[in-house]
Amino acid sequence: MAIKHLRKDIDAIDKEIVKLLNKRACWILEIGKMKNKTGEAVYAPAREKEVLSKIIRENQGPLNKETLTAIWREIMSASLAMEKPLVIAYMGPRTTFSHLAALKKFGASVSYLSCNTITDVFMEVEKDNADYGVIPIENSIEGAISHTLDMLVDSDLSICSQVMLDISHNLLSKHLKDAIVNIYSNPQVFGQCRLWLESNLPKADLIEVSSTTRAAQIAAKEPRSACIASLLAAKEYGLKVVAREIEDSPHNITRFLVVGKSQAQRTGRDKTSIMFSIKDRVGALHDMLLPFKKYGINLTKIESRPSKRKAWDYFFFVDLTGHIQDDKVKKALMALEDKCKFLKVLGSYPVTE
Ligand SMILES: O=C(O)C(=O)C[C@]1(C(=O)O)C=C[C@@H](O)C=C1
Questions:
Q1: How far are the Cα atoms of 77, 89, 130, 190 from residue 92, in angstroms, in the given order?
Q2: Higher local confidence (pLDDT), 353 or 113
Q3: What is the pLDDT of residue 104?
Q4: Where does the record place the Prephenate dehydratase domain (predicted)?
Q5: How far is the CA of 87 from the centre of ligand 1 (A)?
Q6: Which of 43, 66, 130, 232 has the fewest CB atoms within 10 Å, i.e. is most exposed?
């Protein structure tokens, strides 16, 4: 069949898709009105997970899971924006990984608020200048982000979902590779691309700046220069992608949390984050872990941080499998509470890959 005929068919399908999307949008407006009346949170991470799981389960191809997820991310982003002008705070500047993580979770239709620090992200949500905040919690290579752990101790916000982001770095420039003499980026990024730089651009000067966004701004203006930054930065600053995914380790993933004033419903595949401090005695930590064993609860992460309230006093951050509404999680936490000095549930949220 000629392309012309196929395009005619595509036009008819598109017309149908628009009709269906608008039909969906009408129901979304109804849901929005109901939520407005009851005060229920507009963002429903458990329902989003259910929608995505159903779509992937029913998919017959040729579209793959990733493509469908991206399309539905934008459909649900439009829903969120229709229900309420949602504002998402993240640690900026624009185009950095926190911005990418926020976009991956909430899509292009909601508004974003770039903040200078992790503390500011928490503050903007606490003061209702933003509905949710997206903050990094751990990186598969560098470990926990201690500043976020410290903020979770005192904040009243709950964790209501998580985002996993593949961290990948790209060499961006207005010039061809051979013309590049200066490369801008932040020190951590240079550290993660050392081998590639040594074998591909050993003579280039590596110049450290505060963020990959700053690096992209300079590379867009300065002759014979390049930056290492995200693909979003390439788009935003009109740079060409000279080399993609130049990081030395391909398994570099950062996990981000979404914090807000609402809680996520149970999906059946959830995680709960808690923190506690223990009495200073032999075997105390061992005893803390017993209730989890007793109720068959899997712990996926344990992290400790100095409490900063007393020398050698520690807070423990634990991620466990299950939702706070699950019977066995409730029982284990009740048993734990009896044993520790202080226990705080930071939130339950759907597991996402
Ligand atoms: O079902 C809801 O609660 C909705 O608001 C609808 C919807 C969707 O588009 O399907 C949109 C946003 C929510 O985060 C979850 C789902």
A1: 20, 9, 14, 19
A2: 113
A3: 96
A4: 87-261
A5: 16
A6: 66
What ipTM is given for this predicted complex?
A: 0.99
Is it the case that residue 312 has pLDDT exceeding 80?
A: no
d(CA 92, CA 210): 11
For the chain, the structural domain boundaries read 170-243, 268-350
Q: Which residues touch 343 (CB under 8 Å, ≥6 apart)?
A: 274, 275, 276, 333, 336, 337
How many H helices and E strands in the chain? Answer: 12, 15
Instruction: Please give the Cα distance from 273 to 268 (Å, whole number).
Output: 16
Closest CA to 138 of 350, 305, 309: 305
Q: Which of 95, 254, 267, 272 is catalytic?
A: 254
Q: What is the CATH number of domain 170-243?
A: 3.40.190.10
- For residue 79, the CA-to-ligand 1 centroid distance in Å is 6
What fold does the segment set 268-350 form as a domain?
Alpha-Beta Plaits (3.30.70)
Tell me how far apart the alpha carbons of residues 297 and 39 are, in angstroms, rounded to a whole number. Answer: 33
Tens digit of each residue's pLDDT (9 = 90 or more) over 113-150: 999 999 999 999 999 999 999 999 998 888 888 899 99
Contacts of 176 (CB under 8 A, 6+ apart): 242
173: CA distance to ligand 1 center in Å? 40
Nearest Cα to Cα of residue 172 among 245, 99, 69: 245
C-alpha separations of 99 from 23, 63, 104, 254, 342 in Å: 31, 27, 9, 12, 34
Atom of ligand 1 nearest to the CA of 80: 12
Out of 22, 27, 29, 31, mutate this one to test ligand 1's pocket (max ligand atoms within 8 Å of CB): namely: 31
Predicted confidence band of residue 80 (pLDDT cuts 50, 70, 90): very high
- Which residues, 6+ apart, have CB-to-CB distance to 174 below 8 Å? 219, 220, 238, 239, 240
> What phi and psi, each to the nearest 5 degrees, are found at residue 264?
-85, 140
pTM value is 0.91
